[in-house]
Amino acid sequence: MSHIDDEIRELSLELYQTYTKLQELKKQKEPQPVKNYEFLTENHKPIHLLDMFKDQDYMIVIHNMGGKCSWCTAWADGFSGIYPLISKEAAFYVLSPDSPEQQAVIKSERGWQFPMVSIAESRFAKDMGFQEGTSYFPGLSVFVKNADETISRINSAPIGPSDQFGVLWHLYDLLPNNPMS
């Protein structure tokens, strides 16, 4: 083994330890009450956040910047592949400022399996910290449906290059000429 291999192994262990510490801190966060926002579904029907839980107690929401963001579509491609597994544990939606028509087109073109809703007419992204002015930011939020039919956000995370949510970036990082950098 080379010195570089030893250093890579050491840094990998440090990353794992830091990630474990981060997860422990996230478990200590206090739930944040969230109002029952209204969105538009793919067929232009209104849907409320509480209704999106369906029969699940938890829901994962992806804050997507829309079809114009190639990186956001790459993350969504990955989420589509694991959607059947995720949906067994929690409701799962991708939300974007795109219109329902735009969402339907990109969903069809990319073969996405998950449901989408439009947040174009909502303060949701802003209130969740994923919009500033007219700029949207990628991320995710995890919600719980409380026994009294209220909603709380129990976790959130930004999404960006080299995060733990996009396997594509980690695979590309192993290539000598990373196409994403």
From TrEMBL:
InterPro entries: DUF899_thioredox, Thioredoxin-like_sf. This is DUF899 family protein.
